[in-house]
Amino acid sequence: RECIILQAFRLRIHQQIMAPLPSLPKFLFPNPLPRTDFTLHNLPFGVFSRTGSSMPRPTIGVAIGDKILDMRVMAEKNLVPPYFADFYLNPFMMAGRQAWSEVRERLQQYLSDSHPSSLSHRPDVVKEAIVEQKDVTMHLPAVIGDYTDFYASKEHATNVGSIWRSKENPLLPNWVHLPVGYHGRASTIIPSGQPVIRPCGQMLPKDADKPVFGPSKVLDFELEMASFVGGEFVAGDPVPLDQARDKIFGLVLMNDWTARDIQKWEYQPLGPFLGKSFATAISPWVVTLDALEPFRCTAPEQDPEPLPHLRHRGVDFPSYDIKLEVAVKLEADHSPETICRTNLRYMYWTIFQQLTHHASNGCLMRAGDLLGTGTISGKEKSSFGSLLELTWAGSEPLRFSNGQERKFLEDGDEVVMTGYAEKGPIRVGFGECRNVVQPSRVRGEPVV
Fold first, then answer.
1. For 382-440, what is each residue's pLDDT tens digit?
2. Which of 326, 335, 325, 341 is CA-nearest to residue 401?
3. Which of 269, 362, 427, 445 is the residue whose CA sits 20 to 30 A from 231?
């Protein structure tokens, strides 16, 4: 039976690769674009407002090349369901997997050059519904009710444990039995492009016996991805692992900004608090699991075997081959330099195990909830997903091409995260998660 499942899965992916859709419709792009993340294979969802509008309002859109399909216009013309007239994606996220797949198929027809339903036959709709990305402001894609961040990379957890606790026993005993997580602060989740203000807090200077209060001196990024939860849930009901895939709408890039000096002083015994709650940034476009289907892959072997409710059974391909990068831009006239390359497939605990564990006690999940994966690190130093690891707590500074060094982030530094999946002619990308560090607002003074 497993062989039949495996053969069917490989056949479906082979068919997609050998006879794929064109990357972009010619009626919208008569001149080919350079490589783009937002192809017909992707069609991610986001929320935007039109720059310069007298009454800007959040509007759901779908990215295609360097343009956006305005889904409110499409809903007003009865071309898509009415929940696309909403300001945010929550009603669509709640609609469930069948609705997500049906809308995606319909959009591919509308954006096809040859399908009878193609918008190439509706120039009136194209004129009203197609917007240039350069003419919009992007917003958070959903109203995020709750946010949870996990700690699911074995390499990252081992590195942090080695730095802060013990190289001999870097992992706590529970780590290999469950996806460790904590409840984060939804109110400070920000979109790509919004500045990050250096936080203030308590920290314990080296060799001191009393803490001090002030701006963090050890500001860091954490390269993550995050799942937007979708579908309907009932309080008290768990989410079985074999149903978790139907309860995740899609993925975004995530930067879990962290003040390491504040975190180190406060995190015991209850875990992260002010060292992380000042800012968590996500990329604006949500890439659906349907778009990521060709890139499913195996996950790392789990030893010891998880308890039955967290055990992926059979040939399930529970992870995704998504390449991730971090670049840092040090100054206005300096190009970003890549300092990290890693992959979602390195994650020990999968996104489905994270959701199943979260709901295993009956916790009520809601459409629009956000689940961060935790920092994604690989085995090689170049794949470490934070400066804490890349510089080994500042003992091995990174050197940039202009001669500057960094142990941690300084004011004016800009962190740029990107991610994409690619197989043959099929490319599905996430765009950017980009934020610049601004000085702290001591006593609340505004930044000039």
1. 999 999 999 999 999 999 999 999 999 999 999 999 999 999 989 999 999 999 999 99
2. 335
3. 427
